[in-house]
Amino acid sequence: MFGLFFFILFTPGVSELLCTSSDLEMSYTFCDSTAHAFMFNLTPCSTMNKSTWNAVLTWIPRSDIIFLKIVFNVWYDGAKALHWKEVICSGADDEYSVCGMLKGETIATAFDIKGARTKFPKGNYSIILQGFSDDSDKNMIMCLNFTMIVKRDAF
């Protein structure tokens, strides 16, 4: 079982290795130049015959999370492959525990990533994950730039 567990006060611009295996390598950087208190763990580090990745996230946000919109962009070998937006927190009747968290509170959560339902072809993926505290995409509270290198075709 592969995984990397770390808690960091991130140094901006430095790539952090998330995991590496014979078929997958993942790393990330923050998109902005601000230090973040952040921990992320992902297991297993593989795309071969896996139905789910298990993730653990600990993060101390720099602002209140009353409204939260996630924007997810994926590029495959330089071509845009996916653009997805979702309002996670709207301020009323929210279903996620992160909604309503205040600046400086620790978010600690575990969740499954079911991306393994997709068979990822061999190649280089760039994944930008942005979080905004308003609907105008102007008040970014988090931005991660993941690099995913799939070393073998899963099919």
Describe what you observe in this structure.
The chain has 155 residues and is mainly β. Helices cover 0% and strands 50% of the residues. The chain is built from no helices and 10 strands. It has strands at 7-9, 16-20, 24-30, 37-43, 53-60, 68-76, 79-89, 107-113, 123-132, 140-150. Strands 2-3-10-9-6-7 form a 6-stranded antiparallel β-sheet, with no helix packed on it. A 4-stranded antiparallel β-sheet has the order 1-4-5-8, with no helix packed on it. Strand 9 and strand 10 form a beta hairpin. The protein starts with 6 loop residues before the first strand and ends in a 5-residue tail after the last strand.
Which percent range fits the helix content? under 10%
Largest sheet: 6 strands, antiparallel
Provide the structure class: mainly beta
Basic shape? globular
Radius of gyration: 16 Å
The stretches of 5 or more residues where confidence is low (pLDDT under 50) are: 1-11
What distinguishing features does this structure have?
155 residues; mainly beta; four-stranded antiparallel sheet; 0% helix; globular
Provide a quick synopsis of the model.
Helices cover 0% and strands 50% of the residues. It has a 6-stranded antiparallel beta sheet, with no helix packed on it. Strands 1-4-5-8 form a 4-stranded antiparallel beta sheet, with no helix packed on it.
Task: List strands and helices in order, with pairings.
Elements: E1 7-9, E2 16-20, E3 24-30, E4 37-43, E5 53-60, E6 68-76, E7 79-89, E8 107-113, E9 123-132, E10 140-150
Antiparallel strand pairs: 1-4, 2-3, 3-10, 4-5, 5-8, 6-7, 6-9, 9-10
